[in-house]
Amino acid sequence: MSTGNLDFEQFRVFLEKACGILLGENKQYLVSSRLNKLMEQQGIKTLTELVQRIQSQPRSGLREQVVDAMTTNETLWFRDTYPFEVLKNKVLPEMLRNSPGQRLRIWSAACSSGQEPYSISMTLDEFERTNVGQLKMGAQIVATDLSGAMLANCKTGEYDSLAIARGLSQERLQRYFDPKGPGRWAIKAPIRSRVEFRSFNLLDSYAALGKFDIVFCRNVLIYFSAQVKKDILTRIHATLKPGGYLFLGASEALNGLPDLYQMVQCSPGIIYQAK
After folding, report:
1. Phi and psi, residue 38, nearest 5°
2. Does 98 reside within a domain?
3. Where among 68, 92, 111 does a domain terminate?
4. 109 has which bridge partners?
5. Which terminus of the chain is more exposed, N or C, with fewer CB under 10 A?
6. 107 with 212: CB under 8 angstroms?
7. Are residues 218 and 91 located together in one domain of the fold?
8. Model-level pTM?
């Protein structure tokens, strides 16, 4: 597979228009590793040829396959730990104290292979076990991702031993999963049923998503340009109820937008409250 500079530049432009992801100039190796197999199957030799094929055959499904390959990301259970502790020990008690009897809505944006929304659902269960009756109206977790193939896998709630090993304690494995044969585990129905998976592009309209109490948008904004990032954060704010909370990735900071968000120090970690 050829990844000449002009080829790569054309592909970078295509990918940013398709899903907002801004590839660094030194990321040729990533494109090669992610697309080699697909391009061989299609008999495509260069990235320029790939982009031309996508544009000339919009209904072939090739565009979706390429975006899938470039955005698919395995992730961890309870990634960074502190967001889930902050959710359980600070955010949930505060929200249920201020609005008792409400049904919570939580958005897991760019949910990848499903570990984040299922980790949120387990956290809600752990909160309920120590705060019996407080979450009586329940909660809905809306999990979105660009990758249709990834979402199809998420919905089954099944994971292999390799995926399970990435951040999941033995205690949680025993409590929340059923064995499904050698080396496979399935999330128990009560945890799975709280999560609704939807295919969604962060560059599209957010109107159909409705309003949320809490938004997790972690470790995805790093892939966007500063302008696109600002636009996404502004539109996320419009989905948050007043006083709602935004969780970003551990290495991400919300620079600017002081009119929309207020930083909340949680030690460890920082979250953002919608003004």
Report:
1. -60, -45
2. yes
3. 68
4. 144
5. C
6. yes
7. yes
8. 0.82
Q: Are residues 111 and 171 in the same domain?
A: yes
**Span 133-187, pLDDT tens digits:** 899 889 999 999 987 778 888 999 999 988 898 899 999 999 999 999 888 999 9
Is 74 inside a domain boundary?
no
Best-predicted range by mean pLDDT (1-5, 35-39, 66-70): 35-39
Full residue range of the structural domain in which residue 159 is found? 80-272
Q: Strand, helix or coil at 30?
A: helix
Give the residue with greater pLDDT, 198 vs 1: 198
Q: Mark whether 59 and 97 lie in a shared domain.
A: no
150 with 240, same domain: the answer is yes
Greater model confidence, 109 or 38:
109
Extract the tokens encoding 36.
């080699």
Annotated binding-site members for S-adenosyl-L-methionine: 73, 75, 79, 116, 145, 201-202, 218-219
Cα 82 to Cα 7, 87, 88, distances in angstroms: 42, 8, 10
Residues annotated in the binding site, as ranges?
73, 75, 79, 116, 145, 201-202, 218-219
DSSP state of 222: G
